[in-house]
Design brief:
Number of strands: 11
Radius of gyration: 13 Å
Largest sheet: 7 strands, mixed
Distance between the termini: 40 Å
Number of helices: 0
Oligomer: single chain
Length: about 130
């Protein structure tokens, strides 16, 4: 059974850091692109970052570029999202999702419809 489980969310002050994890079970991540998405209350789910399977290429939304770093550890079947210099506008539920092959990144994001399996999400709250 394919399963993705996010963890690492929580409450952090502005300027702080969190590392999110996306652990996969039931399949190996080696051949999948992994996307991180977030959804704030009243807003649509948006692509934040993606890492491809073939060459490890990474992609970021402009709003997080320079602050977030996506990485993968295929041996642990886990993908990470290191989030630094967090801002209140980063507050959202963060989801990971998979698609076969590589990321398809438009100019600004990656469409949610391209992803097949999703985790349950982890809450990130940035507040003083």
């Amino acid at each position: 059974q394919v399963q993705l489980v996010e963890s690492g969310g929580g409450l952090v002050q502005p300027g702080g850091s969190l590392r999110l994890s996306c652990a996969a079970s039931g399949f190996t991540l080696d051949y999948y692109a992994i996307g991180w998405f977030r959804q704030a209350p009243g807003k649509e789910r948006e692509g934040v970052s993606c890492i491809s399977s073939s060459d490890g290429s990474t992609y970021y939304a402009d709003s997080v570029k320079g602050r977030f770093t996506i990485s993968r550890d295929n041996a642990k079947n886990t993908v990470y999202l290191q989030m630094n210099s967090l801002k209140p506008e980063d507050t959202a539920v963060y989801y990971c999702a998979t698609r076969i092959g590589d990321c398809l990144w438009t100019v600004t994001t990656t469409p949610t419809a391209l992803y097949d399996d999703w985790g349950q999400g982890t809450q990130v709250t940035v507040s003083s």
